[in-house]
Amino acid sequence: MEEREAVRQGPRTWVVVALTLTAVLAAALLFVGGLVTGVVISHDAASSAAPAPAGGAASSASPTTTAGAGDGSTSGTGSLDPCLVGSWRTVEHSESSDTPQGTVTITGLQRTLEISEDGRERVTYDPTPAEITTDEGSGTIVFDGTAVYSVSTDGGRMSFELESSEGTVTVSVEGADPQTQDLTPGTGPVSYTCSGDRFVETATGFRNVWERTSS
Fold it and tell me: Which domain of life is it from (predicted)?
């Protein structure tokens, strides 16, 4: 009797597993569709990263910005903070966002960054797997490609205009086939600080630390 019950319940269990994996992958793919150089561009994050009243994420981060090169002052509207010019690599990264399937978090994304004096930013993703977790499970995510932006700074905020991108994003969860989609970066603004060889980007649920590799 117990054996017959196990056989009868087996298919239901597999359905639950399949639905769970589908939810994980769906959440992950919906999430990565809103990334900009690793920044979450969900509705909530975009709203928080935009100019906000005192006490918001953007307003609290802006006064702490430090230019670590050039004349030592924060750059003006539509210009580029000279501290940012040079080559950088990711040394710390984490971001999370709420989705209909639950909270999705990505950690360990590796990238290199080239910012030129004319305000052009080139992001190159290292195809090393980063970790992705949801309320339902975990897996890996691989970004492979490049994105080119026109970037400007104003009072501790960076704004981006996407010029071009190419590449893929692949999400893998144990027990399911990897899911791949085109790399489609967003263009949401971030708050930043830059001093010497350290450059930090922040937004709601997002933090990325860069280390300078050359000027």
Answer: Bacteria
The whole-number average pLDDT for the span 106-113 is: 92
Q: What is the mean pLDDT of residues 140-161?
A: 93
Q: Residues near 9 by Cβ (< 8 Å), separated by ≥ 6?
A: none
Residue 72 has pLDDT above 50, yes or no: no
Return all residues near 8 (Cβ < 8 A) that are at least 6 apart. Answer: none
For 80, phi and psi rounded to 5 degrees? -125, 130
Tokens coding 119: 């305000």
Beta bridge partners of residue 137, listed in sequence order: 134
Residue 122: domain span:
2-214
How high is the pLDDT of residue 26? 62
Instruction: Confirm if 99 and 30 have CB atoms less than 8 A apart.
Output: yes
- 91 within 8 A of 211, measured Cβ to Cβ: yes
pTM beyond cutoff 0.70? no
How many domains does one find in the chain? 1
**Cα 196-201-206 angle, rounded to 5 deg:** 150
